[in-house]
Amino acid sequence: MILNDNNPSDKRIYPSRWECKKGKHLFSSVDKRSGEGKEELLTVSHITGITPRKMKNVSMFKAESLVGYKICEINDIAANTMWMWQGAIGVSKYRGVISPSYNVYRQKNDDFLSDYLDLLLREPTLVDVYHSLSTGIRPSRLRLYPEQLFSIDFPVPSKEEQQKIVDYLEWKISKINALINNLKKQVHAINEEKQIELSSVFTKGIAGIHTNFITCTEPVIGSVPNGWKVMKLKYVCKMYNGDSISDSEKDDYTTVTETPYIATKDIDLQSATANYENGLYVPENSAFKIAPKNSTLLCIEGGSAGRKKAYTTRDVAFVNKLCAFVATDIDSKFLFYFLSSDIFGLQFKKEMTGLIGGVSIGTIKRLLVPVPEPEEQKEIVHYLDNKCEVLDKTILLIQKKISVLMELRQSLISDVVTGKIDVRNIDIPQYEHITEIDSEYEEFEDEEDNVTGEEE
């Protein structure tokens, strides 16, 4: 059965045995508000659906009071109106509240099993339909309102087939998750090896070169080779935040120039590199602060604070959640490796404060860095370049395997949920239910343009 309904963007195909119904016959809009604001605050993500905010690392501002927020009951549908075009919708397993600017829907006739519906609502071809029906004066301001959702045709398999689809996918996804988890553990082990190497070099120097050491007042550093200095960062580099571009302004910065604009989401956590081809640029001679080539950008606020960093290979403008470290009296690559080490990371973490978590530039300036003579800095950089290149290449290969498995998982979900794979007569064996593990090196969902917040 091909669904089109005069919408050329609707490419969905479902089995002819499945009934299709308009959203207006399946769902109703619900608008019940919190009177005391004591309910659980929920987030709505295009990746994970609906989860309690306390279970997520969200850097979006949280309102002081939840009074007036929309109540979402168990099995209700919650949708982020602003990000529906990306698939920010799901069926809630929790009772709680969501932003007043979001929408809550409820089934009229119990046509769907909640687990099947949750999978269906974020199925990519259906998300494409949301996108095609969303309205707004700019691509970054698209909205999908209830009347558009109610106009969409939704497939309604029998309850028996819905249950078989859910059972089949739990089995298959568990097998894929087991493979992903094993690969993530490998990445974690390699990153631990890398951190051991960095910590050793920044406290002992290259193995075998030094025999005399002096004690440092900072416990995280411990001791350093005799002749090294331990200095505050403010004495070896300049530090400053960038400038933010609001969602409503982003369409004004798409003209290609020599200066790309980097947001936190454009920094790859694994490779510590920035994506310069994200489509945003600042005009020449603008007032935007610039991080010059061979500086380090570090996220100092939110879920990725102290974790996401990049060594720049060209001049860039950057968001205010990032801080530029521009070397003055230290080798720039030596500084980058130090900022990548647990010696810096532990100092940074100890100073984190605030609702969304972060460290001020004034505080960072007082953190300590071991500083050998310039010639030894270069030797250490050369040594670490060789060591880290091998480890980083191995991680990159593993990450590619993880990406392939994640794509396979999403493709499988889509094919089964839409009936392209008929699972009605497939026997499901006994198996161990396995969820994908959270990783210390996982991308967070709280960055600009990626995640839904509670307020707009």
Describe the structure.
The structure is a single chain. The longest helix has 46 residues. Helix content is 30%, strand content 18%. The chain is elongated, with a radius of gyration of 25 Å. It has nine helices and 23 strands. The C terminus is likely disordered. The chain starts with 18 loop residues before the first strand and ends in a 39-residue tail after the last helix. With 456 residues, the protein is α+β, with helices and mostly antiparallel strands. The chain has two domains: 169 residues, DNA methylase specificity domains (Adenine-n6-DNA-methyltransferase TaqI, Chain A, domain 2, Alpha-Beta Complex), CATH 3.90.220.20; 211 residues, Alpha-Beta Complex (Adenine-n6-DNA-methyltransferase TaqI, Chain A, domain 2), CATH 3.90.220. A four-stranded antiparallel β-sheet has the order 2-9-6-7. The chain has a four-stranded antiparallel β-sheet with strand order 14-22-19-20, with helices on one face. A three-stranded mixed β-sheet has the order 15-21-18, with no helix packed on it.
Summary tags:
Adenine-n6-DNA-methyltransferase TaqI, Chain A, domain 2, 9 helices, 18% strand, 2 domains, alpha+beta, 30% helix, 456 residues
Topology record:
Blueprint: E1 19-22, H1 23-26, E2 27-30, E3 42-45, E4 49-52, E5 70-72, E6 77-79, E7 89-91, E8 96-98, E9 103-107, H2 114-121, H3 124-133, H4 146-150, E10 153-156, H5 159-204, E11 213-215, E12 223-225, E13 229-232, E14 237-241, E15 261-262, E16 267-268, E17 273-274, E18 290-291, E19 296-299, E20 309-311, E21 316-318, E22 322-327, H6 332-339, H7 342-350, H8 361-364, E23 368-371, H9 374-417
Parallel strand pairs: 15-21
Antiparallel strand pairs: 1-10, 2-9, 3-4, 5-8, 6-7, 6-9, 11-12, 13-23, 14-22, 16-17, 18-21, 19-20, 19-22
Helix pairs in contact: 5-9
